[in-house]
Hints:
By secondary structure, the chain is α/β, with parallel strands linked by helices.
Amino acid sequence: MRIGLVTEGGYPYVSGDAGLWCDRLVRGLEQHEFDLYALSRSRQQEDEGWVPLPPQVSRVRTAPLWTADDGATHGRRARRRFAECYGELVGAVCAGAAPGPDGPSGAGSGESADTSADLADRFGSALYGLAELAREEGGLVGALRSDTAVRALERACRAPGALRTAREARVPDLLTVTAHLERALRPLTLDWYGDDGLGAADLCHATAGGPAALPGLLARHFCGVPLLVTEYGVQLRSHYLGLGPDAAAPAVRALLGAFHGRLAAEVYRRAEILTPGNAHARRWQERCGADRARIRTVHPGMDATRFAEVGEAADRADPDTLVWVGRVEPAKDLISLLHAFAEVRKEEPKARLRIVGAPCGPEGAAYLGHCRALAAQLFPDEAEGAHAVGDNPVSFEEIGGPEAPTLPDAYAAGAVVVLSSVVEGFPISLVEAMLCARATVSTDVGAVVEVIGGTGLVVPPRNPRALAEACVALLHDPERRVRLGAAARARALELFTVEQNIAAFHGIYLQIVSHCPVRRVVLDASGEPLPFAAPAESHVPGRWTGPTARVLPRTTPGWATTAPVRATPLAAAEGAGWA
C-alpha cells in the first residue's frame, strides 16, 4: 500500500523530533511504499539536510512553517467568503470552554454535551471552508494576517457568551493571537491535497497531533483518505506547558488554549485510529473527546541490540556509583538530585554520582552551570591524605568523552540509574537503562510507572529525601539490584523494542485499509465514471498495481468464436421425454 507520512520538524531532516522512530518505521515496513510530507521549523533545519532514505520512500515533499508568502490577492466575493468562514472559526474558539483537561470533558465544566458537539461541528465546518477557499482561490496567508481577521476575532471576543477572559483581550492581545492562528493554519494553503499528493495515498499517517495533523485532515476531507495519528508527546499538553503565566497575557493564553483544544478535538474525532505512545498520552486524548474504541497504545521502539552486550554481560559496574543520563535542562530537576545525593553520602560515604549528558539550548547551558556551582558547594573536593589531590564525588560528563565513549558505557558504569524529572513524556533513558539490566530509581511523572512496572523503585517528584532513601536501599542490597535489573531487561525486551513497534503499526495499517478503503472515481474520455477502474486487488497490501503492473491484452474467448448452437424445439423436447 502507499502511505503518506506527515511529519513536523523531524523526519527526514537530520535534526528535529521523532526522526529516529520514523526512520525505523519506514525501514521496517519495506513491503509498503512511503511518500513523505515534511513541515520544517527553521531555515537551519532545512540547511542541515536529510538523513539517508531507504528505497521504499518514493518521493519527499516539504513546506516551511517558519515563513510564508502573502498569498494570492482575492476578489470581493472571496474576501466576503473568508470573512464568513474565519468569523465562524474564531466564534467557535471564543464560545465556551474548549475540549481539554478543564473543558467539557473535565470536571466543573458548565458546557453541555450538545453545545460542545455544536461548537465542534461549527469549528470543523469553518476550518474546511477555509481550506476549500484556499484550494479554489489561492493562499490565505495575507487574509489571515489582514485587518479583517483581527476585526473578526475582536467581534468574537465581544460576542455574548464568549469566554470571560477573552472579553478582556486588548489590541496587542488580538494581534498576537491573529499572528499565531496564521502560523498554525499555514498547512491549509499547501498544494498537497490533490490526486498527485496525499489524495493518491491509501492511508495518511500523521506523526503528531495539532497543526501537524492538518494535512491529514484535509486529505480525508477532499479525497477520503483515512487518517492515523500517532502522538508520543501530546501537542495540546506541550502547548499548555509552553504558554505559562510569564509567556503571554491571560487573554492570549485563553484564546490559544481554546483554539488548540478545538483543533485537537477535530483531529481526534476524524482520525480512524489514534496511537498514543503511553497511557499518559491516552488519558489526555480521552479527556479531549477521543473515542476509546479507536485508541491503540503503541509504545516507542528502542534498538535493543546496541545494549545487548551490557545487558547480558556480568555486572561490571562500580557498586557505589549512581548514574544519571539525559539532556540537561530544568525539567530534569538535577538540583533535587544533587540534594538527594548529599543525603546518600551521609549513609554511603564512598558513593559517587555521574551526570552524563549535554545541555539543551542556552537555557540548558545556564542550568548546567548552576548545577556545577551547587555540586562544588555541596561536595568540596575531598582528598584521602594531606598530599593527595582532591576529587569531587559528582562528575559532569558527555557521551563521547574518555569516561563514557558510548551510551551503553555510560549506563554500564553505574550500579543504579536515577531519573529525577519533574516533567517527562515517555522516558527513553529509563528504557535504555532497563535494556542494560540496571536497577532504577525514578520519579512518578509522565509514563514512568507504566514503563517501569514493578521492576524499579518510584518516588514522588521534587522529594530529595525519598529519592535518597530509595538510592540507599538499592546500594545496600546488591542481590535486589540484580533481580530488579534482570526483570527490567525482560520487560523492556517484551514491550519496547523496534520489532514490537513495527509489528503493531503493520497490523494497524492493514486494519485501517481493510475497513476504510479509498473510493476513487476514475473518469473515461467522455468524463463519465468508469466502472471497475480500480480493481479490488488495489486494496490488498503489497505492490499489486501501479506503473510496473503488467496489463493483460484483451482477447476473445474461444467459446465466442464457434458457430452458435441451434436451440432444440420445445415440441421435440417434450416428445423425447425431456420435459
